[in-house]
């Protein structure tokens, strides 16, 4: 189990950031979708920029190994556009109503929100529904 | 001392939180060559709990190989407890004036301290839990259909310049705008 400790700790840090950044707040998400504050956009843009610069730096350094000795590489997402656009739209509709995307669902559940657990139960059923209907959906 | 403890309870500005979230991408690569993303855990949780007789192929795989990912979200919940309960911000969220006016016009009260989500939508009632569950279904269905959520597509995907993630982000934002401008004010609370 000790090999999972770095992931657990990284998750703890991520949960702290989501709450301290108020990204797990319905109010902040509504404010974002109505372009009433730069706060959430600042978080997303600076996160993407930092991720981008980190990846460029990793590439620049040449082939690097992870802690457990694997060669670091980022897998390419399968090509296409239908599933990304339609799936994104459906997810976005849910996100825009409850103001919680998957990361914040877990972070908010940790604060003792029973509502977050109801959302999580719904999300598990939605995931299951996708798995059951997968071959009938356009991809 | 007062300043130090104040700092522990204060919320973080975007320019502190955003780059730290971005650093999750190289951190996960560094720990074990993993792509930073959350919503796959919903699939793993389904794989763990799927009864034999249900038997959907999409959930038939060795989820134990993804224990690292489940540990990450257990950590996320722990982090939520640390930041949202132990070191909870004693002040209400500092929303913009425009947002405050909007919430009042929707008939919502402004959030008090430690209120991340509104009572109007999260307070225990059949109506609210129906909305929360149904929206959760859309989040779970949509993220798996799109192959990722805000972390896997908007952050990891865009940071690694992947076109599919751009499509997903456009879909996500479009859906969010529709919900936030029409569904919430006119359908749910109209």
Structural overview:
- The complex is a heterodimer of chains A (139) and B (190).
- Chain A has one domain (2-136).
- Chain A is mainly alpha-helical.
- Chain A contains six helices and no strands.
- Chain A is 66% helix and 0% strand.
- With 190 residues, chain B is mostly helical.
- Chain B has two domains: 1-91, no CATH class; 124-190, no CATH class.
- Chain B is built from ten helices and no strands.
- Chain B is globular, with a radius of gyration of 19 Å.
- The longest helix of chain B is centred in the C-terminal third of the chain and has 26 residues, at 163-188.
- The mean pLDDT of chain B is 96.
Descriptive key words:
heterodimer, A: 139 residues, mainly alpha, 0% strand, B: 190 residues, 2 domains, 10 helices
The end-to-end distance of chain B, rounded to whole angstroms, is: 48 Å
Structural class computed from helices and strand pairing of chain A: mainly alpha
- How many H/I helices of chain B? 10
Mean pLDDT of chain A: 96
Largest interface in this structure: A-B, 115 and 126 residues
How large is the share of residues in beta strands of chain A? under 5%
Low-pLDDT runs of chain A: none
Total beta strand runs of chain B: 0
Give the tally of β-strands of chain A.
0
> In one word, what is the shape of chain A?
globular
Helix amount of chain A, in percent?
Answer: 55-70%
What number of domains of chain A?
A: 1
Round the mean pLDDT of chain B to the nearest integer and report it: 96
Overall outline of chain B: globular
């Amino acid at each position: 189990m000790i090999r999972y400790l770095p992931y657990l700790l990284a998750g703890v840090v991520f949960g702290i950031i989501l709450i301290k950044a108020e990204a797990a707040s319905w109010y902040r998400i509504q404010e974002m979708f109505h372009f009433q504050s730069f706060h959430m956009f600042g978080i997303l843009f600076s996160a993407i920029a930092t991720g981008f610069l980190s990846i460029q730096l990793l590439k620049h350094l040449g082939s690097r190994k992870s802690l457990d000795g694997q060669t670091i590489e980022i897998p390419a997402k399968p090509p296409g556009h239908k599933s990304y656009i339609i799936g994104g739209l459906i997810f976005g509709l849910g996100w825009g109503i409850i103001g919680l995307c998957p990361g914040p669902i877990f972070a908010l559940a940790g604060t003792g929100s029973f509502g977050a657990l109801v959302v999580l139960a719904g999300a598990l059923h939605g995931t299951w529904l996708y798995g059951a209907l997968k071959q009938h959906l356009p991809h | 001392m007062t300043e130090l403890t104040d700092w522990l309870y204060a919320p973080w500005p975007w320019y502190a939180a955003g780059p730290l979230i971005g650093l999750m991408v190289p951190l996960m690569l560094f720990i074990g060559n993993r792509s930073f993303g959350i919503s796959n855990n919903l699939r793993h949780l389904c794989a763990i709990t799927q009864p034999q007789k249900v038997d959907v192929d999409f959930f038939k795989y060795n989820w134990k190989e993804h224990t690292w990912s489940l540990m990450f979200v257990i950590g996320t919940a722990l982090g939520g407890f640390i930041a949202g309960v132990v070191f909870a911000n004693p002040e209400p969220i500092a929303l913009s004036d425009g947002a405050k006016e909007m919430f009042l016009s929707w008939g919502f009260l402004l959030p008090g301290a430690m209120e991340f989500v509104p009572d109007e939508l999260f307070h225990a009632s059949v109506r609210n839990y129906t909305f929360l569950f149904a929206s959760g279904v859309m989040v779970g269905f949509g993220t798996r259909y799109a192959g990722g959520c805000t972390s896997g597509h908007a952050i990891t995907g865009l940071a690694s310049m992947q076109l599919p993630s751009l499509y997903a982000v456009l879909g996500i934002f479009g859906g969010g705008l529709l919900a936030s401008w029409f569904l919430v004010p006119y359908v749910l609370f109209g």
